[in-house]
Amino acid sequence: MAAHFEIDDSFIAAENQKARKWVEEDYEHLAKKLRRQNVDIEDLCAKAQQFRVAVPSWGVGTGGTRFARFPNIGEPRNIFEKLEDCATIFKLVRSTPAVSLHIPWDKPDDPKTLRDFASARGLRFDAMNSNTFQDQPGQKHSYKFGSLTHPDKPVRDQAVAHNIECIEIGKMLGSKAHTVWIGDGGNFPGQQHFRHALERYLESMRDIYDALPDDWRMFIEHKFYEPAFYSTVINDWGTSYYCARELGPKAFCLVDLGHHAPNVNIEMIVARLIQFGKLAGFHFNDSKYGDDDLDSGSIKPFQLFLIFNELVDAELNKIANFNPAYMLDQSHNVTDPIESLMMSAVELVRAYVQAHLVDRDALTLAQNNCDPLLALSTLKQAFTTDVAPILAVARERAGGAIDPFSAYRHSGYRQHKAEERPEIKGAAVSGLACKL
Ligand code: LRH
Ligand code: MN
């Protein structure tokens, strides 16, 4: 395999040299400010260094819409090149050592070779994702009218077998979780029998659940619409929660931020799932209207903070069964996917550290004294604290870049990849030609 350009540690060290002076000044200034609030900046820096979020293999290729996809230069053409790009993100931001794969888009010819390629770059594999929302070439039964809930048993059996195959591949890759999102639903009133469709879903999911190794978890991902435009079988957290309860202790509810109607109080759904011990974790992204899959924190940063406020409250109170898996699930139609995924990972660490800045005693007091504005301003004080120096120092101490954005651009990585990865005319990278 021809030499592949990689950003090396000496380049990152040189880039950090340019930025060190300002970051140390800002860090010292913030440390003084936080000391007045009896907060030790070093505790927050350690929290930032511990934060982990998985990147989606399908996120490093350029996404599109049903209208068009505008390929970028140096697009990854296979799972190995996708992992190269994931490794570059990890090298610069240090909080993304895990990659979430989608099958069959990333189906490896030899799982061991893929696992070794990943671990040689410090990467491991997070939750697996099945795909019964597209028909594959040569597939016996179409998923046009559904998969795990299809009226015809042979179609459901085919979909169950595919999910079990994903779990088998995941076992060889070291994954410990399996995410099931299905687009099953109807476009017209009367098309589906709502109760029977859900019964068929549970029947199929029980077969998949039984194939899970003891130390695995199953993540049920709900979505209020699309690709079905009238009814969706697993449309909201309530239905997901009922199914997770029905299936058993290894089943949990995954919250994709874009899978809710505009203005739904997602942080409250998170608090419920935490309280019920069924929070699987997240597909982080942002949106203004539908499942827009925009960069995390780019549209509603305060909502992202409020979600992490619930997560940190649970973490500090050692809530039972609280072990959320954090993943990004985005589509990058007009940006360099590596830049978007880096910046999104940074936004998650920012929200997490700010949530750790909340004065929880003051908040509890305000809540118990029915003092709404004191409660809100206690949250806002944390949300409006610029923790960028902490995030930068945490990255640097972990061997990453103080300023990953400029370091990446200065590296010319994308241009190098354009030379190494001549575009295959008309070939779309396996994944979502248009991100649903
Ligand atoms: C569905 C979804 C799901 C993935 C797909 C790529 O909208 O969020 O998580 O399987 O995107
Ligand atoms: Mn998702």
State the total count of DSSP E strands.
11
- Please estimate the helix content: 40-55%
The dominant shape is: globular
Strand proportion = 5-15%
Structure annotation, total helices: 15
Mean pLDDT value: 96
**What are the secondary-structure elements, in order, as H or E?**
HHEHEHEEHEEHEEHEHEHEHHHHHH
Oligomer: single chain
Span between N and C termini?
34 Å
User: How is the main sheet built?
Assistant: 6 strands, parallel
Q: Indicate the low-confidence ranges by residue numbers.
A: 432-436
Radius of gyration: 22 Å
Structural class: alpha/beta
Q: Tell me the strand order in the biggest sheet.
A: 4-5-7-9-10-11
Structure in words:
This protein is α/β, with parallel strands linked by helices. It is built from 15 helices and eleven strands. The strands form three sheets. The protein has a six-stranded parallel β-sheet. Helix 3 (79-93) links the parallel strand 1 and strand 2. Helix 3 (79-93) packs across helix 10 (337-355), helix 8 (266-275) packs parallel to helix 9 and helix 11 runs antiparallel to helix 12 (372-383). The chain is globular, with a radius of gyration of 22 Å. The two termini are 34 Å apart. Mean pLDDT is 96; it is low at 432-436. The chain binds 6-deoxy-beta-L-fructofuranose and manganese (II) ion (MN). Manganese (II) ion binds at residues 181, 221, 256, 283, 329.
